[in-house]
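Good morning,

Attaching, inline, the backbone tokens for the sequence recovery test we're adding to the shared suite. The designed sequence is right after.
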């Protein structure tokens, strides 16, 4: 018996989606850290004497706050994507085809201990 290509494609799509979510969490953490660093530089390292317009220190504070919030959200996304889907039983339905071309529906249950 061989697996139905559609069930393999579904598994492959789910696996790729899980990797994208994990990568998104890591990428978000990196961009958040860069934002925090840029905000800190703007707040503490740059001094301006111009009294008109916007203050770079205010932009620095905003970048640090947005970076911190982004870091927390990305950490949550990363943590939830690394956790197994369920700690209990899993079930899967799939179609199988034998060498003579006959198709059957198979229901599998995997029990976690």
């Amino acid at each position: 018996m061989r697996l139905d290509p559609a069930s393999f494609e579904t598994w492959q799509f789910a696996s790729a989606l899980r990797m994208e979510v994990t990568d998104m969490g890591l990428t978000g953490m990196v961009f958040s850290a860069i934002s925090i660093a840029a905000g800190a530089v703007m707040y503490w390292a740059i001094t301006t004497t111009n009294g008109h317009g916007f203050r770079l220190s205010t932009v620095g504070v905003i970048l640090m706050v947005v970076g911190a919030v982004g870091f927390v959200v990305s950490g949550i996304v990363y943590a939830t994507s690394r956790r197994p889907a369920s700690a209990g039983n899993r079930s899967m339905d799939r179609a199988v085809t034998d060498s003579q071309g006959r198709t059957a529906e198979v229901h599998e249950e995997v029990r976690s201990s």
